[in-house]
Amino acid sequence: MTRFGDFQPLCSHTPSYPWCNLFYRQLQHHSPLTLLGASANASAAPVGVNPECGTLRVGSGGSLGNIANIVACGLSIVFVAGLVWLCNRRKAAVGRVELRLFLIAYLFTLPLQLVTTGAFLTQGTTAITVLTAIHAGAVAAVFWTLLGNAIVATQVVEDGTLSSLIPFSFLTLAFFAATTYISLDVGFTFTSAFGPSNPPASLHSIPLFVLTSIWPPVAALLYFAIMGYIVVIILRETRPMWFYILSGILFVLSQLDYFLLNKVICNGSSAKVDGSFVATLLETAAVGVLYLAWKSITEESWDEDVYYPR
Fold first, then answer.
1. CATH says 14-307 is which class?
2. Distance (Å, rounded) from C-alpha 232 to C-alpha 239?
3. From which domain of life does this come (predicted)?
């Protein structure tokens, strides 16, 4: 029976789910007999734990690994780097520093995602476990920076100042450090606080589940709610709201693709590719539209006294 905090359904039914790398290491050292099927041979095992479908590791049987998502991550890296450059050029725009930090944080996750889902490294190794833990920390931090941008947009504190950047940066580092530590403990089982899972096959970790599966959508929902209030109630504008709605739709579609169509694409391609590349492109498109939304609400033609009260 599945409990809250069990990763077993995700690791079996969702190809290229990166946090499963942590549990593979845990099972390999504590319950190796539970690694069955494609996961039994670590040198060729795809991302996942006993996955129903998954791309084999690069070079195993001529496999190119998760090649489609590797390409998608590469294109996204170039695109987001361009957004960082464009953001930096808007010197007078409100929230420029905080948005740039969000874009840089998201950019940081992309090469990590490329490695942790690309089937480059052998499952169970120290390298892939550590990189996956860092990836998990980076994702948790990204969604704080997203929510932090919404809080800054309310002008509770003045953007770009120490009163904004110190708590913004502190919480970013706190989310990153806490999630990375918990992830490392899940993978290496340093202590009994976060592992090993009991029973082993359930792949159970409530803290990791909350930080990687619950916190991101909650932060995204709060972000869109706050920005919707600012745009519709305070600014009384409609055009920027359409950008936020489109960005939200793209984000939801990326999650639906990842958790519903991912395995369908994997089975349909005989495990040559899976649907993670579509999710990556949709997520990056959502970030791009967020940039357009931010750009539209920082236009100099608007009455700044309404939006930035003194």
1. mainly alpha
2. 10
3. Eukaryota
**One-letter amino acid identity for 68?**
A
Residue type, 118: G
Complete DSSP assignment for 156-175: SS-TTSHHHHHHHHHHHHHH
Phi-psi category of residue 199: left, alpha or beta, with phi > 0 → left and psi -120 to 50 → alpha: beta
Our CA dihedral for 252, 225, 287, 11, rounded to 10 degrees, sits at -40
Q: What are phi and psi of 305, to 5 degrees?
A: -65, -25
Q: Give me the tens of pLDDT residue by residue for the chain, a chain 310 residues long.
A: 689 999 999 999 999 999 999 999 999 999 999 999 999 999 999 999 999 999 989 888 778 889 999 999 999 999 999 999 999 988 878 889 999 999 999 999 999 999 999 989 999 999 999 999 999 999 999 999 999 999 999 988 888 899 999 999 999 999 999 999 999 999 999 988 887 898 999 999 999 999 999 999 999 999 999 999 999 999 898 889 999 999 999 999 999 999 999 999 999 999 999 999 999 999 999 999 999 999 998 854 334 444 444 3
> Sign of dihedral through CA atoms 210, 216, 220, 223?
positive
> Which of these, 15, 118, 109, lies nearest to 64 by C-alpha position?
118
Residues facing 6 on adjacent strands: 204
- Under 8 Å CB-to-CB from 75, ≥6 apart: which residues? 281, 284
CB atoms within 10 A of CB 22: 32
Q: How many residues does the chain have?
A: 310
Q: Whole-angstrom Cα distance, residue 106 to residue 146?
A: 10
Where in the chain are the domains?
Answer: 14-307
**pTM beyond 0.85:** yes
Chain centroid to CA 155: how far?
Answer: 27
